[in-house]
Amino acid sequence: MLAFIGGTGLNQLPGFEVKRIAGVQTPYQDTAVDIACGHLPGVAGTVHFLPRHGEGHTVPPHRINYRANMFALRELGVTSVLAVNAVGGIHRQMGPGVIAVPEQIIDYTSGRAHTFFDGDAVDIESADRFTASVTHIDFTRPYSHELRELLLASAGQLQLPVWPHGVYGATQGPRLETIAEVRRLQNDGCDMVGMTGMPEAALARELGLAYASVCLSVNWAAGLSDDVITMPAIRAVLAQGMDQIHRLLLTAASRFPEMS
Ligand code: HPA
């Protein structure tokens, strides 16, 4: 089963007919994680939707309970996750408005609850597939090959230009970067920078969920243009780009059975 995780600018999916809101209890927070379960036009089967920043976009990137979110998706039987992330562009191909399906990640976040395998038997045993041991997941290729292919084939079908490459640098936020920080990210090989790509991708892998990300560049990263990065400017790009993201997700969902 397929789920979308919406990021900044994607709090709802047009045409998504919500059948129920599942309030899923997890060992990772006191309150339930609310996940919308419903149908998309032309798509067989149930699709799940989780707005990462909460209804109304109130939870900043460093306060998102990534473990609760991913655990709740798995509890509902989700097997594949397509995540949407807004990013700042670093590579010259990644100007505002460009969509990318990144291949790699460098994690610069700190202090986030970033693993289910925390040496805490209570957490781990509450989930049937975990074992109460130190576990090192393979993360050589952080994104699912099959889901990336699905996204790229869907973009091809729509004749939507999508950059099929890129290294995603995940920063702690919520502030944006300095010029020197972006230079460092660039030197490290990052092509885009965002605040929500990790630990989400790694937690998905720990749970055995296939996971891929669709990134929308909403600004040039700090220092790469003369412009000051403002929220109104970001919102303007989001408003334009989200229509393409919606079409891409809808097509990917309609082709999703190809994966199984
Ligand atoms: N930096 C980090 N995260 C972001 C940016 C950025 O420039 N734009 C959107 N998310």
TrEMBL record:
Taxonomic classification: unclassified sequences, metagenomes, ecological metagenomes
Keyword Transferase: yes
Protein name, per record: Nucleoside phosphorylase domain-containing protein
Gene Ontology cellular component list: cytosol
CDD domains (UniProt xref): MTAP_SsMTAPII_like_MTIP
Species, as recorded: marine sediment metagenome
Keywords: Glycosyltransferase, Transferase
Presence of the UniProt keyword Nucleus in the record: no
Gene3D superfamilies named among the record's database cross-references: Nucleoside phosphorylase domain (3.40.50.1580)
One annotated GO molecular function: S-methyl-5-thioadenosine phosphorylase activity
InterPro entries attached to this UniProt entry: MTAP (IPR010044), Nucleoside_phosphorylase_d (IPR000845), Nucleoside_phosphorylase_sf (IPR035994), Purine_phosphorylase-2_CS (IPR018099)
Residues that span the membrane, as ranges: none
Family (UniProt): Belongs to the PNP/MTAP phosphorylase family.
